[in-house]
């Protein structure tokens, strides 16, 4: 439906139409901590930080752990992952000498050698020093296929908001008088050399309630952005809008996306100044690759006499589809235990990354004789993870493939989708950053409260005694259709596995391990299923003798912070320690804080009484019982996180302190939603978490 029609329908409501009144907000004595940068608030933060340092960080053991982690993060032996731009491969690199990082480039021939010769394109440390800014690299958008001009994005301290500046890759310098945008949560895209699509903060009325742009302008070089013509305007209660141009030679097209909610969107193609809607389900994602329209379904879709199941990937001729032709080709159909992770297009092929019982599979698709033919890519490990992506979708059929497992370091290889049966050639491999001798990876299943079987991966000693004494760390996420797959994590290996601990990855509902249905099974009022699943895995670990509640810890961040916050509130008897990172915890006010309104499609709207009725039950901030005993908890967040408000962690810590519960809290003044702005900060934050767990769960 178009916005004007929605408004018209709203105006037709009778004056006495029943309207739901907002749920009353409970009294919140700690709400003052939501002011992010107030002097009183930051003084409180620094006091908590000092407590955490004294309790965890002022030991020789902590210093050794922090140095070990930093040596991994700064290692020159890490794989320098690359992106092809023109004739060069570009890489962004941080190490001890370049803590903010270098954007650099080399050639493919040089990259094949053990030590490529790198040419610095942009030195972020030097730029930050010269401008007196704490710049954090946010990437670059390149004008293809010319591959000379790009839009560099730089964040102050790691926040999602960034500044945008035009940069010349040949001159290796910012363009004097070029395109430039001040700090905002902007999206920008090249239309041509002298024109951009821009969605940004242009003043009152230009942002949605989620804090993202709601207007798109077509900005010509040499003109004022304020005078740029409006391309599209969404509604205030939309999530965001964005526009982009497909710059593939011979297939140049303009597109506008109106993101209605986190899970629904409308796609338009722009022709002759008109927006033509692409007739797809609102909850389906669609993209184009050359002549093809590719649609990924989240719910079943009936076209004519055929119903395509949720989780399917479909293709149709783009121009024919716009003209009403509904000839659709099926690229992937899920099963109860298989799902689509991602897809990528090369010049003549499509690459599908799929999961089969949370194990990676990769397939090359080729269109010939009127249909798509699938052939598995060679070189994908039977167990572990693999991810294939196009090197250059415009001119090449080459692909990158990264493979790993929890005990096998990552390998980067290059292959061709034109010869899928030929294994890709290994180019780079991560060294073994920890001693994996005597360790093994096992996949188990726990039975959740409603009988659903929940897989999980256990990494630990092969001869693990079933005496319940092994310190065990259980990690989970369970939201936003994001799957957790078992890859190589050298920090976990060095900080936990080498010291005799067991590490467990839980594939609970809410994630994307088994496609949209697995995610939708834990949406909104069904969210407790994710928590039941996590509890089932924890109880299975205890029942199997792997560990005991005294030695079982949990860790999670963001939505995973909400997960472990609920574990803390619901089953304090089941866990010996909790690490809760950049979390959501106050589900009554989350939608009013920063980007929180954009997640109401995932969690629900607390202003609706019927939805607050179930949200209150999964809001850790409202679920603490002063009379109960709780395990020690470490809360970490970032002042510069402009996605999940640091007030969640602050207020929860304040509540627990008020009730006399064992709590430590640390807030990095920089870092954004990732919690750290550079490797040194990340090493400190990781060491804080693992030192806390080792102390509380150790033998």
Task: Tell me what the structure shows.
With 699 residues, the protein is α+β, with helices and mostly antiparallel strands. Among the domains are: 186-277; 438-687, Rossmann fold. It is built from 14 helices and 39 strands. The strands form nine sheets. The chain has an eight-stranded mixed β-sheet, with helices on both faces. Strands 5, 6, 7, 8 and 9 form a five-stranded antiparallel β-sheet that branches. It has a four-stranded antiparallel β-sheet with strand order 1-2-3-4. Strand 30 (408-416) and strand 31 (425-429) form a beta hairpin. Helix 3 crosses helix 14. The longest helix is centred in the first third of the chain and has 19 residues, at 39-57. The protein is globular and about 65 Å long. It starts with a helix and ends with a helix. The relative contact order is 0.10. The model is unreliable at 1-20 (pLDDT under 50).
